[in-house]
Amino acid sequence: MWTAIFTLDHVHFVSQSESMQIILPESTCGSGLRRNSACVHVAYRWLSFVTLAVLVLVVAGYARVAQATEFQQASYSRTSPRGEKVILKFGDKQKFVLSGADGKTLVEGTYKVTNDQIEFTDEKGPFASKDAKPGKYKWQLVDGKLNFTKVEDESEGQVKGITGATWTLEK
Q: Residue 22's pLDDT is what?
């Protein structure tokens, strides 16, 4: 990309240099050679503009990816292995609640987000793994879709409940 910008400066410098003025004297100002030089100059300006536009789009794309990596406190839903809708709500004070579509709480606990990892600690509820160590997962949130990948968790029930399907942002 930068070659085009450097080349623009090079063409401009060359057309102004003493050796080019000898090859293209003032008397040939209206000749085809001088017009070709101007066309090349315009073409390189256009190429520089297009290159700059592509660079802006690439930077904007990276900004979107960077925004996608921020964890959002919100509610996400998915279908459980039994075919029922479940909702995982990440609330204030690093508390989470997993509930059924009927609103019945299945698991309550705490969570801690560090970069691209999240740690769950079950505290109470009929499906809570109260005696298990905290479960660690990598998380990825893109366009309202949240996915978890197990890093470390001794509770198979928690692993099955969290991974295996995409969680969708509730609106």
A: 52
Torsion of CA 160, 162, 164, 166, to 10 degrees: 160
| Mutual angle of helices 32-68 and 2-16, in 10-degree steps | 160
Please state, in angstroms and as integers, the Cα–Cα distance from residue 99 to each residue in 84, 128, 159, 166, following that order: 11, 12, 16, 16
Catalogue the E-assigned strands of 1-144: 75-79, 85-90, 95-100, 105-114, 117-124, 135-142
Number of helical H runs and strand E runs in the chain: 4, 8
Total-model pTM: 0.60
What pLDDT score was predicted for residue 47?
72
Q: May I ask the CATH class of domain 75-169?
A: mainly beta
* Structure confidence by residue, pLDDT tens digits, 71-119: 999 999 999 878 899 999 999 999 999 999 999 999 999 999 999 999 9
d(CA 86, CA 30): 77
In the chain, where the domains are located: 2-68, 75-169
